[in-house]
Amino acid sequence: MSNFRTVTVKGRQFRVRAGDVLLDGALANGVEIPFDCRAGTCGTCMVHVSKGQTVCGETHTQGMIYACQARVVSDLDVEMEDVPEIDISKARLVGLREVAPDIMELMIAPEKSISYLPGQYFKFTFNGYPARAYSPTASFDGRIGGRVIHLNIKRVRGGRVTTALGSGIRPGHRLRIQGPYGHAFLRPGGTGRLILVGSGTGFAPIWAIAAMALREQRSRPMVIIAGAKKLPQLYMTPILAQLARLPNVTIIPTVEEGPINHPSIRTGRIEPHMPTLTASDVVYACGSPRMVSALAGMVDKAGATFYADPFDPAPPEAPSGLIGRIKTLVARRAPEPEPSRDSGKGREPSVDPFERALSLVPKDPIEDDLAPRRPEPRRSTAAERDHALSLVRERALGEQASLQERPRRAAGQMASGHV
Ligand SMILES: Cc1cc2nc3c(=O)[nH]c(=O)nc-3n(C[C@H](O)[C@H](O)[C@H](O)COP(=O)(O)OP(=O)(O)OC[C@H]3O[C@@H](n4cnc5c(N)ncnc54)[C@H](O)[C@@H]3O)c2cc1C
Ligand code: FES
């Protein structure tokens, strides 16, 4: 038998040696498969094998493989989803504000319009700083796309980029945006129940997906789980309160570290609060890599569809010269840094987190086409908080039983249309 195999990607044919990495073979033959990490984590290179076999590079989605990891062992037919082309644009930071302790909202204006699908991410290189991946979100009032990109970014202790937000990086700062990348984007047309899970700022892409899904199919059953380490970091409360008004949406806020006095909020990690999954569910999980991999196991067991965007830290920069190499060795021996700055340490949050979150709700919190009816007249902040929490409580705690009884159908697969 010949050592070569024939691969067809989107109708284009080429030959590779048996055992070659699919992505390398495609690129060497001038066939573009988008990629980013080349490590089997970002999902950008995921393709569907409709005929033939590969080894390695399996994903949690049936029939899909990571082209950067998979080795060709037989003739192959490969299909790719339609995604916007990777592009580069110059941009400027036009807005920056703290929405919760150590969580910033950034508004970025690209020089030219850029296309992406909700749930995809870009690499942002602020002038003078290394590139970092961030996932655009919808604005707090549910708007997505347009001329400004919204980001939610968590400040990480010792982080090169995030500790500079508000000091070295201020409104007016110039940057470069490259992308979009990633595979955890909303597939339009699906009808299966959407389970959208975001831990910390993993809520950013989750909110983008939810806002677009509600715009496209207002009545699609949806469960949204938003987790935070500590109560003050549950920055998305205003959005959750608005979503809780929708009859098809169930909201489950979770906080890892208690004590929590709000009955609408569940304590502990996200995993135990997941609804019982079935094969027709479509699960999106973004944020903590630990949470994403725990959910992957649950999804596999249920046979559901899974799209994930783990917020893996950027790889260390290549050291230059002897001193750089020594620094890397020392860093490798240093104890693991804490995951994030403890916002409670040394400075008590002076404002009730819900007062703070709800004060950010604009007059018209969710666009007309997203909400089933206009929000009621604005209440005083305290009354508004109680009202918001009672809505979340009703949806989050009262509907557990009905969660598993809702009708479900299979999800659509192919993406189309840009934001
Ligand atoms: C696909 C993708 C999408 C992402 N989207 C977002 C987003 O929308 N919002 C957001 O806030 N972040 C997001 N991230 C994480 C982001 O890219 C950076 O890793 C993060 O902002 C830290 O950057 P830094 O330069 O401040 O820290 P670095 O200088 O890169 O890291 C400093 C130290 O902190 C550790 N570290 C880095 N990130 C974390 C973390 N999250 N938790 C614990 N330790 C960490 C590093 O290992 C290192 O030891 C995303 C990551 C990926 C891969
Ligand atoms: S390029 Fe293959 S998973 Fe990232």
UniProtKB/TrEMBL annotation:
Location of the 2Fe-2S ferredoxin-type domain: 5-84
Region described as Disordered: 332-419
Species annotation: Bradyrhizobium aeschynomenes
Pfam families reported for this sequence: FAD_binding_6, Fer2, NAD_binding_1
Obligatory cofactor(s): [2Fe-2S] cluster
Domain FAD-binding FR-type: 86-187
Composition skew (Basic and acidic residues), residue ranges: 333-355, 370-397
SUPFAM superfamilies found in the cross-reference section: 2Fe-2S ferredoxin-like, Ferredoxin reductase-like, C-terminal NADP-linked domain, Riboflavin synthase domain-like
Name by which UniProt lists this protein: 2Fe-2S iron-sulfur cluster binding domain-containing protein
Domain of life: Bacteria
